[in-house]
Each structure stands twice: as structure tokens, then as C-alpha cells.
């Protein structure tokens, strides 16, 4: 096999892996967009329900209690959503790197093999030179 064929195959493999990686990133970003939209909708509904409860409150004590409960629930919701986003981003990064890892590992393996072959050839040439000089 020629080095041109090797380079062509490696380039094609790199492009395919890059496209696979970009596909994963695109799907991950779509999932983030969907989650963001759903979170916004849930937050809006939660805020409207809270507003209704506040308008129905008959005392300041009840108003403060409702506001405290609302703040706690919003904080818990935000932490939950942030955790979910973190998991999505981590999964997306992990999956997006898999195709590129294969290219890197394949290139490393070919580089090691090339180095091994060239060092063996160089050793044979050096040994032949030593034999001719000694003779």
C-alpha cells in the first residue's frame, strides 16, 4: 500500500469522524434547547400559580410564607435543571470525542509502527555499514 493511499484513507477517516462528532454536538445542542424551552415554560406556569396564590392571601404572614416556599421551590428547580444541563453537556462532550479518539489512537499506532519499521531498517543499514568497514 502506498503512502498516498494511507493518507487518503486517513483523511477520509478524519473527515468521517469529524462529521460524526459534529452530529453528536448538534443533537446535544438540540436537547439543550428543548430543555431550556421546557424549563422556561414550567417556570412561567409556576410563577403564574404563585401570583394567583399571592393575590388570594389574606394576611402578610401568609404572603411571606408563600414567598418563602416559592423561593425554595424555584431554587430547587434551578439546581435540578443546572445539574441536568451539566449531565447533558458532559455526555455530549464524551460522545463527541469518541470518534476523534479513534483517529488519534489509530494515528499513534501507525506512527509507532512506522518508527519501529524505520528503526529496524536503520539498524540493518548501520550493521551492514559496520560489516563493510570491518572487512
Structure description:
Pfam families: Phasin_2. This is Phasin family protein. It comes from Aurantimonas aggregata. Residues 6-102 form the Phasin domain. There is one protein chain. The protein has 135 residues and is an all-alpha fold. It has one domain. It is built from two helices and no strands. The protein has helices spanning 3-56, 60-134. Helix 1 packs antiparallel against helix 2 (60-134). The radius of gyration is 31 Å and the shape is rod-shaped. The two termini are 37 Å apart. The mean pLDDT is 83.
Measured by DSSP, the beta-strand proportion falls in under 5%
The helix content is: over 70%
For the termini, the CA-CA separation is 37 Å
**SS elements, strand count:** 0
The geometry reads as rod-shaped
Largest sheet: none
What's the mean pLDDT score? 83
The class by helix and strand makeup works out as mainly alpha
Element string (H = helix, E = strand)? HH
Number of domains: 1
Low-confidence stretches: none
**Helical segment tally?**
2
Radius of gyration: 31 Å
Provide key terms for this protein.
135 residues, mainly alpha, 2 helices, rod-shaped, Phasin family protein, Phasin
Write the layout of secondary structure elements.
Blueprint (H helix, E strand, L loop, with lengths): L2 H54 L3 H75 L1
Would you summarize the structure shown here?
The protein is mainly alpha-helical and 135 residues long.
Amino acid at each position: 500500500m502506498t503512502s498516498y493511499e494511507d493518507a487518503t484513507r486517513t483523511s477520509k477517516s478524519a473527515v468521517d469522524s469529524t462529521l460524526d462528532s459534529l452530529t453528536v454536538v448538534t443533537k446535544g445542542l438540540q436537547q439543550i434547547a428543548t430543555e431550556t424551552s421546557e424549563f422556561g415554560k414550567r417556570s412561567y406556569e409556576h410563577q403564574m400559580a404563585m401570583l394567583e396564590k399571592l393575590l388570594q392571601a389574606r394576611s402578610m404572614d401568609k404572603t411571606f410564607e408563600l414567598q418563602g416556599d416559592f423561593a425554595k421551590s424555584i431554587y430547587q428547580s434551578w439546581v435540578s435543571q443546572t445539574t441536568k444541563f451539566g449531565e447533558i453537556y458532559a455526555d455530549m462532550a464524551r460522545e463527541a470525542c469518541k470518534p476523534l479518539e479513534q483517529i488519534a489512537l489509530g494515528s499513534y499506532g501507525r506512527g509507532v509502527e512506522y518508527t519501529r519499521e524505520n528503526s529496524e531498517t536503520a539498524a540493518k543499514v548501520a550493521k551492514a555499514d559496520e560489516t563493510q568497514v570491518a572487512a
